[in-house]
Design brief:
Blueprint lengths: L3 E4 L3 H14 L3 E4 L2 H10 L2 E2 L2 E2 L4 E2 L10 E4 L6 H8 L8 E4 L6 H9 L4 E7 L4 E3 L2 E3 L5 E5 L7 H12 L4 E3 L3 H22 L3 H6 L1 H20 L6 H12 L8 H7 L10 H11 L4 H15 L2
Parallel strand pairs: 1-2, 1-6, 2-5, 3-10, 6-7, 7-8, 11-12
Antiparallel strand pairs: 3-4, 8-11, 9-10
Length: about 300
């Protein structure tokens, strides 16, 4: 496994992509459509104030399939990204999605075949989008695994390739848990920060916000348990400890979207928990209130 492509230059895409570009050189590319290519070349893309000299490749320029493709778009842009990335994906291409929520892997599996898709979550970073760039102190890692939990040759090859590219890839045997654990932290951190215009430091140090943050995660944990995923109180506490280590002045993607007056991903966060809570008769009042608050903010754009 040698070649890597990435599609989606949001905060995480820029952060991981520029590291991969610098370390892998011509074995890495950013997959892009012509319209975005022209805009990025005109306006520039920046990582910690450094201009990123990406190797951009359009679908028309695709020659041979890539070994690994990373999807880092927003959920709303995923289907367009699938169409753009299709020429780069062959029978043996592995796919990782670092999108939020629990639905992108299913959508990618439908498009390319479930045998190509591993489950993944990006965590422990404090990247913040600023204009055409991203600033961060902690790059964090990509935690991933095979859907069946096996330690396959492909999975270990991905770990080695990411390491070569300067990205911390952590292989896990608990793939489905990865997805639900990712959703649990997002309904806590993203929704509370977005609803209250709060930083990581504020949701940790303000007793009211901390209670909401933890409470939203606990509701997600109860729903996950009903879905057959064994999230525990220790998982909640692990996330709590991780957030305590993040830059106190930074904030997550949903608040970045609110500040930029962009549509949020509330559909795949709180609305998913509320919907599944009703399915299993699990009360989700905190998530319901956060969904209402965020939808009100969006209505004022």
């Amino acid at each position: 496994m040698k070649t890597v492509g990435l599609i989606g230059l949001g905060a995480l895409g820029i952060m991981f992509g520029w590291e991969l570009q610098q370390k892998l050189g011509d074995d890495f590319c950013v997959i892009i459509d012509k319209e975005r290519l022209e805009r990025y070349r005109r306006e520039g893309i920046f990582s910690n104030k450094e201009e990123c000299k990406f190797r951009y490749v359009t679908p028309e320029e695709a020659t041979t399939p890539l070994d690994l493709v990373l999807f880092s778009t927003k959920i709303g842009g995923l289907r367009a990204a699938i169409e753009t990335a299709a020429p780069f994906i062959g029978p043996n291409t592995a796919i990782l999605s670092i999108l939020n929520g629990v639905s992108s892997e299913e959508i990618l599996s439908e498009a390319f075949g479930s045998e190509k898709v591993l489950y993944a979550v990006a965590q422990e970073m404090d990247a913040v989008r600023e204009g055409n760039g991203v600033v961060f102190k902690n790059m964090g890692c990509i935690l991933y695994g095979e859907p069946d939990g096996q330690l396959s040759r492909r999975a270990t090859d991905i770990e080695a390739l990411l390491k070569k590219g300067g990205v911390n890839g952590r292989l896990s045997c608990e793939a489905r848990r990865i997805l639900w654990n990712k959703l649990m932290i997002n309904v806590g951190v993203n929704q509370v920060c977005a609803s209250y215009n709060a930083t990581y430091g504020q949701i940790i140090n303000d007793p009211k916000l901390r209670e909401l943050f933890v409470g939203a995660m606990r509701e997600a944990k109860e729903v996950a348990n009903k879905e057959g995923v064994d999230l525990t109180e220790e998982d909640v506490n692990t996330w709590l400890r991780l957030v305590e280590k993040l830059d106190v002045h930074s904030f997550p993607s949903m608040l970045q979207d609110i500040k930029a007056k962009r549509p949020t991903e509330i559909e795949i966060f709180g609305k998913t928990i509320v919907r599944l809570g009703k399915k299993h008769s699990v009360p989700t009042p905190i998530n319901a209130s956060l969904v209402e608050a965020i939808e009100k903010l969006e209505s004022e754009f």
